[in-house]
Amino acid sequence: MAITGQIALTVLMGLFLVGVAAWLARVENWRSYTPVGGGATGGETAYGSDEKPAGLIRWLTTVDHKDIGLLYGAFGITAFVVGGLMVMVMRLELFDPEMTLISNTYYNSLLTSHGITMLFLFGTPIIAAFANYFVPLLIGADDMAFPRINAIAFWLLPPGALLIWAGFLPIPGVIPAQTGWTMYTPLSAGVGSGNQANAGVDLMLLGLHLTGVSATMGAINFIATIFTERGENVSWANLDIFSWTILTQSGLILFAFPLLGSAIVMLLLDRNFGTAFFINGGSPILWQHLFWFFGHPEVYILVLPPMGLVSLILPRFSGRRLFGFKFVVYSTLAIGVLSFGVWAHHMFATGIDPRLRSSFMAVSLAIAIPSAVKTFNWITTMWNGRLRLTTPMLFCIGFVQNFIIGGVTGVFLASIPVDLVLHDTYYVVGHFHYIVMGAITFAGMAGLYYWFPVFAGRMYQRRLGKIHFWLWLVGSNITFLAMILLGYGGMPRRYATYLPQFATLHQVATLGALVMFVGGLVWVYNFVVSWLEGPRVEDADPWNLKQSGLRTNEWAWFERKRETALADGGDEEALADGGDPVDEE
Amino acid sequence: MAARTFDRETLLDLVVNAVPLFIMAFFVAAFVLFAPFGFDPLASLLQFGLIVAPFVALLVLTYFSARAITDAERGGPVFLPGQTTPTEARPVEHEAEAEEAGAAASSEPTESGDGDA
Hints:
Radius of gyration of chain B: 23 Å
Largest sheet of chain A: none
Structural class of chain B: mainly alpha
Distance between the termini of chain A: 70 Å
Number of helices of chain A: 18
Shape of chain A: globular
Distance between the termini of chain B: 51 Å
CATH architecture of the domain at 55-301 in chain A: Up-down Bundle
Largest sheet of chain B: none
Oligomer: heterodimer
Number of strands of chain B: 0
CATH topology of the domain at 55-301 in chain A: Cytochrome C Oxidase, Chain A
Strand content of chain A: under 5%
Order of helices and strands of chain A: HHHHHHHHHHHHHHHHHH
Mean pLDDT of chain A: 91
Structural class of chain A: mainly alpha
Number of helices of chain B: 4
């Protein structure tokens, strides 16, 4: 009876919120919303580049979306290097079945931090880097809707990272968290005879909370920007696909990250103030529900914008428009909605009611369709196209290949009986690494190479770019295919040691990781050297997009920027932050 | 009514979201007809609610997004996505007219322009 009352109250509250949203949508014309004194308001922003101070102070005080995009990019790449080095130590440890290189507890620490670093400190920020730099340019806005909030959102990240990594710093009495990135209770609540009551876990939780606040602020900004700051001719009918995916992703962040924040606060209260949400008579499974209600949308928060990047870049090197553009738009929105209805497919093995499991299986199978549709769209875009196998295009094709393997292996996991066999094995690890590394990171690389001339003003070394791609494609497939085979063999995940029968496949996986490591070295060398000494871009259309009628707004902005810079005596700082020359009239 | 709200082209575009809707509807029907774990007021309510809620949400979002896109198409010039500001950009209608006049050869890429290939 009490439960029925709670359900009724929940439904009533939901209806009330829907009513509020509907009322707000009716009374406000958001497109013409112009807050007084609130930064960019559809006209010229007050934060022109010509007002920027020089040197370090510029980067500490900037509110220019492009500068903040570069800051996000530098932060994301730094985190990627840290997370990558962590996993290299882990893979070297796994070369041998016994505990050899590092202790088992240190392995657990690296495992936890690798996951959190890659998802929260690399994945989300690197997407924000592209979005900050290019969404305003693509939609013809002067800047983000709230430039200062944009800066605050970024500057929450470095302290967040320091807190997450605090356990690795030489602080007396603080050890790294060893909870896994999912932070399952009761382990993460610090109960029992383990060492997870340590302050290092609290610091990690607080850091994670900060990154969540950062992501939420960024999401609100992107939604406001795309709704209210679009250029004169940019309507919903011709909004570019990357902005569509950022809009959807921001919607997901808006609903998902506050829930993670709430769950983290509840966990901190359980750990430090004796509350009983998840322990002391509370429900450990409640944590899993709360976490995965955030966690599964998080998967799409990370994958939708890379899908947008591929949908934007791949047609430019296929010599034709994206096949079925609106299919991609509608399927993006479908993924956004359905991603909130699949969370318990991560919990099939927890013993929840079989009727509920079957519902989550149904929606999980349904969400596979929009993803598959996109894959066919990319393939049909390339079909009979005039392909140019540039480095960004190679990474796009690599994305499609890895996404197919990662996606198909995921469909099997959506089936309850298959999942019960493969749950908590390396099959799952191989599946999601095909997505997060093989697809998401590959798309990120496609974006970095494609727009390198825009943000560096120089060209990278093409041969090194291709070497990087092939090393990563081969390396990632060696490693992640070996993981899938390990999972079929029954190798459980999250272990620092294993039975000798798994040694060969683990050694193969480590070999693939080393191949990727070499590829990573080539990439870092290429980017650093090219940034400093690469040949200057002489043409505002380095990819020859004009010829095929596929030049997009950011390249037109790049052309105007170069023309203005020349007219102004070559000073690159002479531009307004939105890209248009400052109008003095 | 839907035919008046959305033209044939838009309805065709919306098929992409009709497929997951169909899958969810199929499972609702299947769980009504076949219930190996029996019926329980709370569990069964949640079971169907967990499929019906995303079904309705997807239906509503698809409708409103299609409305927004269709209204924008009817309300002003439509450029290619993300291609509104390049100097060579023309609204799609103009392009269609040009194609009809046989003057759209420029949209084909040439042999040169291989980028970093």
